[in-house]
Design brief:
Largest sheet: 6 strands, parallel
Helix content: 40-55%
Strand order of the largest sheet: 4-3-8-7-5-6
Radius of gyration: 18 Å
Shape: globular
């Protein structure tokens, strides 16, 4: 991706939702391999560099969407680039809409069995014509992976959604994307299937518009504090990096 921006120890692509969807359509219609889409957010700045294999996989992803408001603000501070958020859950819905319109075949892997089943049913109601040609829950053991890969390949899916959470979905793709024969787009969607079924509520529109979705989710799920406690550290590091640039020091 051209013009990729470095944000501390990770990267983000300066795309809006329409541009991200254009990339997806191009990947499916013109691509000859799986193209990986990951979400870029502050939390990943801290756990990805600890695993060299995973870090390289993230760096080489075909599209790193500006999912978190922290990354959006950091891009403005460090590079003077104004980005709009591209939430992974919204991109997933838009890919489903595009797939229904263009006849792209979809496979969904991840989440609990009942969540997977209900979410897929709801997606096909939301997007008439959507071809979900296969699905599998996220509790398949290592010995079952060859069979899963075969199931995905036999389905001739062109779009693969991975609802395994981070860093599991990144690790899965790093180790298995070369085995996928017909898939052209792979998106890690984390807990999006739970939001589709209603098991997890997305923040109301007001909170999203105010870029406070992270705070709403923290209030609704206090256990997320373990993940979000790195946010203040991220802010400080971004400001320090900017200060070094202003003072003429290389970072």
């Amino acid at each position: 991706m051209k013009n990729r921006l470095k944000i501390l120890d990770i990267w983000v692509d300066p795309v809006n939702m329409d541009e991200a969807l254009a990339c997806v359509e191009s990947f499916v219609t013109k691509g000859d391999r799986p193209h990986v889409i990951f979400a870029s957010n502050p939390e990943k700045n801290f756990f990805l560099p600890k695993d060299p294999f995973l870090y390289e996989s993230f760096r080489n992803a075909d599209l790193l969407i500006p999912d978190g408001i922290g990354v959006v603000k950091a891009a403005q501070i460090l590079h003077g680039v104004r980005l709009s958020r591209v939430p992974g859950c919204e991109l997933m819905h838009n890919i489903c809409r595009l797939s229904a319109q263009r006849g792209f075949r979809v496979f969904v892997y991840g989440a609990k069995e009942e969540v997977s089943r209900e979410a897929c049913n709801k997606l096909q109601v939301l997007y008439p014509g959507l071809q979900i040609v296969g699905r599998a829950n996220g509790y398949i053991k290592a010995e079952g992976m060859p069979q899963l890969i075969e199931q995905i390949n036999q389905s001739q899916a062109e779009v693969l959604f991975l609802a395994l959470g981070s860093p599991t979905q990144e690790k899965w793709l790093a180790g298995n994307k070369e085995k996928l024969k017909t898939v052209r787009v792979c998106q890690g969607i984390g807990g999006t299937l739970d939001t589709i079924t209603g098991n997890v509520k997305r923040a109301p529109e007001f909170w999203c518009k105010c870029n406070l979705e992270w705070f709403y989710r923290l209030a609704a799920e206090p256990k997320r504090i373990k993940r979000q406690k790195v946010l203040p550290i991220f802010v400080v590091r971004v400001l320090m990096a900017k200060l070094k640039t202003v003072l003429g020091f290389s970072s």
